[in-house]
Structures are given as structure tokens and as C-alpha cells.
Amino acid sequence: MSKSSKKVYLDYAATTPVDKEVMEAMLPFFCINYGNASSLHSFGQKSKEVVESSRTVIAKGLNMENREIIFTSGATESNNLTIKGIFNALSRHPNFSTKKLHFITSKIEHPCILDSMKYLEKTFKDLVEVTYLDVDEEGLVDLKDLERVIQKNTVLVSIMFVNNEIGTTEPIKKIGQLIKTIKNQRFKSHNKYPLYFHSDATQAPSYYKLDTKDLNLDLITINAHKIYGPKGVGVLGVKKNTIIEETSHGGGHEFKKRSGTLNVPGIVGLGKAFELAEKQRKENVKKVRQLQDYFINKIKSQIKDVGLNGSTKHRTPNNINFSFEGTEGESVLLMLDQEGIAVSTGSACSSNSLEPSHVLLAIGKTHLQAHSSIRFTLGKFSTKKQLDYTVDKLKSIIEKLRKISKGVKF
Ligand SMILES: *Cc1c(COP(=O)(O)O)cnc(C)c1O
Fold this sequence. Notes:
12 strands; 14 helices; alpha/beta
């Protein structure tokens, strides 16, 4: 429990508060217009109507067709559906059963990508192989590395848009261009293996325009709760003609790609949240980027022996990840919480394990550096005053912890 009455939330990459406008849009769909969107009566038809409006908003924003938008329960499901859905469809496809299917991803993806890949590797050893690309010290995937590992039987390249721990923004447009070139070569050489490009863009919509045609993306993942919408709802955008099979079988919802009764209030909330993200992007980028610069400079000038993890140039506006030499991230987190400040060590999903962050290790940090890292993530409700208060508390906490650990060699 926090001893401070002050509340400063700096964990927007874990989840965001729901925007009031989003909540208001959702409310009628719990107790008034509660019909099942598959029902033929007017209750159902009203639900169907609002689901389709959300679909239109998202399709437009992603530059896709309405029938290419699949509503899911969130980014985890969308990413699982991408990997397992493509594997299931292609591994049983008569054209592609002669060779193993080859998948490529990076070492710094979200666990739902990495663990889905590992699951396939382990369960279907004879049918699939996966390459996990290294990243450089800023967390960037190298295009030459990628080009080198793409084989004739590579069917999926999945690279995240923005890393959730260190905020590195990957060169998605360049990767898309490379993949387009290889697709054309395959077409000319009569190689029939499809090559799909997927990006987990969950951390991106508030700060980056996601035009799938411009980026040459075949599949894209987003969710609502990282963009001021509700938890438990997301999207997988899937270009038509992508060979993919549903993994959740049942009533054939969502163009037979994802069965299950639609989460109508959630989908309405996601549509509204996405609409606001589009509308407010320019203003958000400017505001949050300024706060980021301010916070980074202030920490560097007020606290000694700190290191910014990730990239300076290729960084999403809302992420700040520092290692504080000679401290332990969990202790810093708990002591900040005592002051009413919410931050994160590594990612929320892995923070209940004692393993150091796979992302920080992949960019070459030592175990000690990784364990001393804190992620601060900002959002549209963050203020300069909150950041001043945070640096103030942080400075004395770091000093206190360093005194305690003095004598211990870091
Ligand atoms: C939060 C997050 C996820 C998981 O999203 P859920 O909707 O909570 O399942 C996946 N990928 C990235 C990059 C994320 O930040």
C-alpha cells in the first residue's frame, strides 16, 4: 500500500486508463442494447450495426477492407492466431507439405509471439523450424540479417512495431519493402510458398500511423487496452487471400477465422479508442515526446551512473527505460510504489519471474544491468509535475539503495 496520497501512473505500456469518451460509448451495450450480434431480431441487429461501425473505423485506419478485420480477445490471441493459424493451414496444404515450414521472428518479441513459436517447434519438430533474429545494442533488427535468413520455404516473418520494454521502433517499412521484393522474386521463379509479414503493433497506434498497404503488412495485431480502451479485446488484421485457419472453432464468426460471441461493448470501445488514437496522434506525439525528453534529461542530470536502455533515435515517444547501477529494480519499484508512483521492471507479463528480461539480455546488457532496470511509460494524461515529483523521489530512493548496497561490488 502506498503511504502517499499522491498517485502517479507511469506504466502506460502495461495498460492505459479507459478514456471517458470510450467508456461512455460502451455503456449502452451492457444493459440496454445487449443483443447478441449474431441474433436476427432487432436487439441483435443493433449490436451488429455497432460492431460493423467499429470494424469500418479500424479498417480505414489500417487501410484494409472490412472483411480483413478480425475481432479477438486481445493481442495475445491475435498473435497466437497468426502463428498457429498459418501453421495449421499451411502444414496440411498439399502444395507446402514437402518441406518444413520456416518462421522468422526476433529475440525481443512479446512472450506471446516467442512462446507460440516455441510451442510449434516443440510440438511439430518435423514440420516447422524457427529463426530468432538477434538485434543490435539499440534493439534493432538488421535488414541484412533478415535477408540472409529468408529461405525458399519461409512463410512468416513476424517483427514487432514497437518493443514494449525498451520502446525501440523497428524498421517495419523497410522490412516490408524487402519482403515485397522477395515475394516478387518467388512469383517469377514459380516458388509457390507464401511469404507473410506480420507485425505486433500493440504499442504503436497512439504514436504511429499504421497503413498496412504502405508498410506491406499482411497481418497486424493491435488491442484496445494499450490505447485507452478496455481490456480483453483486440484485432487481427488479415489481408484477404492469406492462407490461415481458425484456431477457435465454433459458430464461424468473424469470416470463419475466430468463432465466439462477439464482445460488443469491448468492440465498441476499441473502435472509439482507435478513432481517438487517430484523431489525437499528432498532438499526443508532440506532448509525450516533450515529456520524454524532459524526463530523460532530468534523470541524467540529477542521478549519477544511469544508463538509458534502447535507442535514442528509434524510440517511441512514451518509453523511458533506465538502468540504475548498484540497485535492484524490484526494490526501486516497491519504494516508488510507497510514494504512489507506478512503474515497471521489464514487462508486466514477466515481472513475476526472477529471470532477467529477455529483451535487455538480447541488447547485450548483463544480468546485473538487466536487474537494475526500470521502465517508465508515459501517456496522454502524464504531466511535467508528475515527472518532477518522480525524479525527486527516485533520486533519494536510488541514493538510499546505493548506500545499503555499498561494499557489494556491482
Ligand atoms: C500488451 C502487449 C501484448 C499483449 O496484449 P493483450 O491484449 O494484453 O493480450 C502483446 N504484445 C505487445 C507488444 C504488448 O505490449
